[in-house]
Amino acid sequence: MTTYQRADTKTLLRAARVAEQILLRYGLALVLIWIGGMKFTSYEAHGIMGLEVNSPFMRPLLAGLGVQGLANLLGVTEITTAILLIAGRFFPRLGLIGSSIAILMFLTTLSFLFTTPGWEPSLGGFPALSGAVGQFLIKDIVLLGAAVYTAKESLTSMATLN
Predict the structure, then answer these.
(1) More exposed terminus of the chain, fewer Cβ within 10 Å: N or C?
(2) What pLDDT score was predicted for residue 25?
(3) What are the pLDDT digits (tens) for 6-30?
(4) Using DSSP, how many helices (H) and how many strands (E) does the chain show?
(5) Rg of the chain over CA atoms, in angstroms?
(6) Rounded to whole angstroms, how far apart are CA atoms 63 and 20?
(7) How far is Cα of residue 119 from the mean position of the Cα atoms in its chain?
(8) What is the rounded CA–CA span in Å between residue 101 and residue 154?
(9) pTM of the predicted model as reported, rounded to 2 decimal places
(10) Could you read off the pLDDT of 114-129 as tens digits, one per residue?
(11) Peptide bond connecting 60 to the previous residue in cis, omega within 30 degrees of 0
């Protein structure tokens, strides 16, 4: 490998690291802002009610806050989490808090795969995901991975500041 090729490879690796940090942190924040904003609509509030009513974690909140009240709480939580993730680029402790909240949110939504009927019986049940529930929720595995990455990035930044 020539000196030029090594320098080019290093430049590409550096660019890839910056891109992954930007895409994971700000992409995750964008998703949370977008989905969180939708929670304030009746369409989204009623759309997620089927997931909440089957969840032992969410059912009590649904009973206490009502459909729109719980959706509003989730929307505020998601948007606040996004703001913390964005701030985390400059204030790692805030990023860690945002990442931790996101991790808990995605673990909660992934639990819906087991609490909500989501396996397609016409395809033999588990592991065939239904379009209505399973395919909607499975993406949260990738979002969970992004939240874990941003938590690690925040911890690394905090360690280098001390």
Answers:
(1) C
(2) 92
(3) 667 888 888 888 787 788 999 999 9
(4) 7, 0
(5) 19
(6) 40
(7) 22
(8) 13
(9) 0.85
(10) 887 766 666 666 666 6
(11) no
Q: Which amino acid is at 132?
A: A
Q: How far apart (Å, rounded) are the C-alpha atoms in residues 121 and 130?
A: 8
Alpha-carbon separation of residue 98 from 11, 61, 88, 109, 114 (angstroms):
30, 22, 8, 16, 25
Hunting for tokens 């985390």 — which residue is that? 88
Buried b (16+ CB within 10 A) or exposed e, 76-86: ebbbebbbbbb
Residue the block writes with tokens 């939504």: 109
Amino acid type, 40: F
At 15, the amino acid letter reads: A
The residue to which tokens 């996101």 are assigned: 102
> Residue 14 in 3-state DSSP?
helix
CA 99 to chain centre: 9
